[in-house]
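WARN  no MSA supplied for this record, continuing single-sequence
INFO  ligand: magnesium ion
INFO  echoing inputs
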Amino acid sequence: MKVDVLLGLQWGDEGKGKVVDVLTPRYDVVARFQGGPNAGHTLEFEGQKYVLRSIPSGIFQGDKVNIIGNGVVLDPALFKAEAEALEAAGHNLKERLFISKKAHLIMPTHRILDAAYEAAKGEEKVGTTGKGIGPTYTDKVSRNGLRVGDILGHFGEKYAQAKKRHEQTLQSLNFEYDLTELEQTWFEGIEYLKNFNLVDSEHEINNLLYVGKKVLCEGAQGTMLDVDFGSYPFVTSSNTVCAGACTGLGIAPNRIGEVYGIFKAYCTRVGAGPFPTELFDKVGDQICTLGHEFGSVTGRKRRCGWIDLVALKYSIMINGVTKLIMMKSDVLDSFATINACIAYEMDGKEIDYFPYDINDSVKPVYVELAGWETDMTKMKSEDEFPEEFNSYLTFLEEQLGVDIVIVSLGPDRAQTIERYTEE
Ligand code: GDP
Ligand code: IMO
Ligand code: MG
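INFO  complex generated
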């Protein structure tokens, strides 16, 4: 069997959680392959709203297997809080959630280091989610990390060694901190974690594929936050791109089937870093208000702007996207006109690619399209789409070269319209 991958094409928060939940009935397994509790994936159905951070978004649809892969970094304290809230709401996790023993653990001192490094950067800070993501991946790559599987062995000594190393760094940065409460909830989290299926998830997933099970891999963050291909250094610390599904789950590249690339009908970014189509005017505020663009993890206001087709084309190329999914077009329902960035102007020249040295001198080149000025949130079929909206879809498909197979018209599971279903 092939595995399908669903991932964000912009700067995160595209609506991955919602669509994974919508697609889950077609799969047997949903697996997260990178990132950690920096993610906030929102799902809404039957009047309920959930925000998932580390647990895959397939957890609500029947008895599907959900896997937290080796590429993920896990904070036991946050995981416990997230899992207990789901269990309290009647969702049994222990039978169907598998966690890789090779996933790395976010320690309390990783979170403090995240804050300390940001403080040291001052004006240049990344604006991280403060969850210890960077320091944990740093320890992984420098071969100093603690893994989930370690908690089943002689864990105390390894923990103490890592903590000591982190504390030396914190001292050298003159950073004040208090670990007492963080450590207590963390160790409670470790004990809680032991109740779960801690597995070699690469075997688990390949065995499932061998017997014909269908797997959907759920990305976190977005391509423009990828550590290699994003707007470095204003990125996260993992490979958010399709290749990350291979390394983060132990899936061979020739197993990849469909690659679902998901994007908003406009663009947002939370945290610092370049954002060529960012709007600083009333329109930006309007998108922010209508789209409720506030971070699901940190509550921070998201920066808003027009859709950026230069960045989207780049993301589609890097990921080998085979199907596109457009989210949140309802946010633009009341707009008379809509802009789409088709190129950048840099040093007096027009370019159609995402440049290495992207900075404030890069200006978007826009085309203006007619808005549809229709409330689409209750529509049930594409037959109801206004003409201008169809023109917008056609324009995007021509520009991007990939079909838009799903259009999302609201946060609820039910506000989702599929296209090209006859194939
Ligand atoms: P993720 O991180 O990619 O899963 O996205 P987030 O959950 O962080 O952010 C997406 C936000 O938009 C959430 O609040 C969703 O409930 C909401 N959302 C998802 N799809 C739509 C849509 O089509 N229209 C509107 N208005 N909101 C949506
Ligand atoms: P989901 O999965 C949006 C951003 C942070 C910061 C940068 C680095 O919900 O789409 P980190 O804490 O990862 O070291 O922060 O990445 N960021 C996200 N932005 N959505 C996310 O996840 C994000 N995860 C990290 O704001 O700019
Ligand atoms: Mg999010």
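The longest helix spans residues 155-172.
INFO  checksum written, moving to next record
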